[in-house]
Amino acid sequence: MPMANGTTNDCSIYLDPPVLLNVTAGTTSTECSDVAAAYGVTVGNLQEWNPSLGNSSSCSLSVKSRYCVLRFVNAALNVTSACIQREVAAPGYDCDQFAGSWGIETEQFIAWNPAVGPGCANYKLGAQYCVAVYGFRQPGLVANCNKFAMPNTTSWINRPCEIMETTFGLQHARFVAWNPAVKDNCAGIYPLYEYCVSIPNFKPTYTTPATQPPPTGRPPTVVPIESFSR
């Protein structure tokens, strides 16, 4: 797609019209006012970056040209330090839909981007948000934790808490007490998050695995208990 005549060449995001207005309804538009709203800018901004649009407030974009729609990305404030990927809020998506498009829950999205506020009240189109983390620690962790670990990313979804509790010799109640965001039903445990698995002076308790039959199929040798007392 060729660049519109005179469009700035130092833009952060370019658009090949039309712009998506609502991902659910599939509605689109080429109107300047709709495009500006979709990226959190003004019509004046669009006209400044794309002189071919003229000065009329009722301008529209040609589907045969590419336009600058966001010259500078507005980074969201207070993004978690565990963030490893940021993306601009996509046009046509509300907060829940944007989070879902990256395979994350809205509750997670808000935790990683606290500036969006409760219920995503401050979510803004055109702003940049964290959409992936590594080593994120949920609020409420026990203060004196001295060892953290991540869930097994291959089978965590089947037994999320049990795997960590077994590995580190933890009783379920203790694990939840140290990591309250996990919740008693383990609904709050996620891969690539870090969880507390030890505190000073804690002594893990490991469950002895059940005796397995010998590989030959022969019955196991039974040693009389009294033989150990001789």
TrEMBL record:
> So what family is this one in?
Belongs to the secreted LysM effector family.
Composition-biased stretches (Pro residues): 211-222
Its keywords, alphabetically, are: Chitin-binding, Virulence
Any GO molecular function: chitin binding
Q: Which organism is it from?
A: Coniochaeta pulveracea
What residue spans carry the region label Disordered?
A: 207-230
Sorted alphabetically, which CDD domains does this protein's record hold?
LysM (cd00118)
Domain LysM stretches: 85-131
This chain's protein is named LysM domain-containing protein
